[in-house]
Design a protein that fits this description.
six-stranded antiparallel β-sheet, 2 domains, alpha+beta, 10 helices, about 35% strand
Length: about 450
């Protein structure tokens, strides 16, 4: 089930009424979820699930504990609070404990789509059937997962806070592989709305890339110009967002730290075309209007004209430093131009075209040094054309360095395989990325 605002309010009030000491915060998530997994030319598993989760966090004298349950009857709710209060009494004092948030004014976000809310088994079968038939026509093997959700979230506490949000979400991932096993590609779609989902187009994109990536050639690793697809850009920007942390910068633990102390807010650290921002109320790609504590998200410019403008904080650090409390965002947007990947390829003399990155890891937070592997179609480009598929490569590089030398930005799109935070980013041409070894993985 997806609890309405009124239903959620009644439930959280019952929980709050059970408190016997200190602070109490309750977070209720509810959802109707469904999925259909497919592979080997047919559906394999399918399910519909209704779920409600109640998370109770109690605090007294700086000691905090959280207990989670899935029942909402009076006895179960009372037991949750009792257990949380008991565990809080056994917990060590948190020196960074903050009092409950009394008010929050999240923006109004329209993130519901009736077509997703009413999606059921028959519609799932139709969508997946279209994907399978497209793969058969393209003569590739296909496997994937269709998921959908109609849910809500509410956060309340004894200080008077109550916020509520309802959303829908649908995603489809498809992996296409050639019969000889040497070519493979994975693509995805994710949105709050169903209207933009075309299973045929998604699978055709994946099959085309898989077929093109067959029998890849070896290219020796070195520093090459690169064209990053939308998903590859999203894969890297997750590390940048984590680095935009005020405390880490103030304590000298990140690439956003100024030598000698403090953060580099106000400095130009990136190419002047980099404009990184968040807006939960974006009409095309809405996101959650508040976080797990009930802190409101708002429109924020993180990087503008290449200049670092804003860092996110915890409530404790914002209070300790007397700065604005800016939570980690629920969405991330990077502005771009109008070109698709094909147009970017046509404008490049020589480069490696990277569809996706995986096994990505942070190596050095002070340099924002990252490593990972290419995947799902890696190609060599010469004189504006894809010449041949190449074997996957490992990269090691500093994101600050590579994002200072942007050659071109394409048209922003929702990254279809980034299912958590909303990521809307463009494909990108960079002057160089350091590749260090060749991988045999397909």
């Amino acid at each position: 089930m997806s609890l309405s605002k009124q239903e959620a309010k009644r439930l959280v009030d019952r929980v709050l009424a059970q408190a016997t000491f200190g602070d109490l915060r309750v977070r209720v998530t509810s959802a109707q979820r469904g999925h259909l997994r497919y592979g080997m030319g047919r559906p394999t598993t399918s399910a519909d699930v209704d779920a409600v989760t109640v998370a109770v966090t109690t605090s007294k004298d700086g000691r905090t504990a959280t207990v989670t349950g899935s029942r909402t009857d009076e006895a179960a709710v009372a037991l949750l609070v009792q257990r949380a209060e008991g565990l809080a009494g056994l917990s060590p004092v948190d020196p960074e404990h903050m009092p409950p948030l009394a008010t929050s004014k999240p923006p109004k976000v329209k993130a519901e789509d009736r077509a997703v809310a009413s999606l059921g088994a028959s519609k799932r079968a139709e969508l997946v059937g279209r994907a399978i038939r497209r793969a058969e026509a393209d003569k590739v093997q296909v496997a994937g997962l269709l998921q959908h959700e109609y849910g809500s979230e509410a956060v309340a506490n004894r200080a008077g806070l109550f916020v509520h949000h309802t959303h829908t979400r649908v995603s489809l991932s498809s992996t296409c592989r050639t019969d000889d096993g040497t070519g493979s590609a994975r693509v995805g779609y994710v949105s709050h709305a169903l209207a933009g989902l075309s299973p045929e187009a998604l699978v055709h994109e994946a099959s085309g890339r898989a077929l093109r990536s067959q029998l890849p050639m070896r290219r020796e690793p070195e520093r090459y110009p690169v064209i990053l697809g939308v998903q590859a850009v999203a894969d890297l920007l997750g590390f940048l967002l984590e680095a935009l942390d005020a405390r880490a910068a103030d304590e000298g633990r990140s690439a956003m730290a100024r030598p000698g102390g403090g953060a580099r807010v106000g400095e130009r650290l990136f190419d002047e075309r980099i404009h990184l921002w968040s807006d939960p109320a974006d009409k095309a790609d809405p996101a959650a209007p508040f976080d797990e504590e009930g802190r409101a998200h708002r429109k924020v410019d993180w990087i503008e004209g290449g200049v670092l403008r804003t860092l996110h904080t915890s409530r404790y650090w914002a209070d300790a430093k007397g700065i604005e409390d800016v939570p980690m965002p629920s969405s991330l947007h990077l502005d771009g131009g109008a070109d698709d990947v094909d147009a970017l390829v046509a404008g490049v003399d020589r480069a490696v075209l990277v569809s996706r990155l995986w096994y990505n890891r942070l190596l050095d937070p002070q340099r924002l040094s990252v490593t990972g592997l290419t995947r799902d179609g890696t190609f060599w480009v010469e004189k504006g054309k894809i010449v041949e598929p190449i074997r996957n490569l490992r990269f090691n590089d500093d994101l600050l360095r590579v994002l200072q030398k942007v050659v071109a930005l394409g048209r922003p799109q929702r990254a279809g395989l980034s299912g958590g935070r909303v990521m809307v980013v463009p494909p990108m041409v960079l002057s160089g990325l350091s590749f260090t070894s060749v991988s045999d993985a397909v």
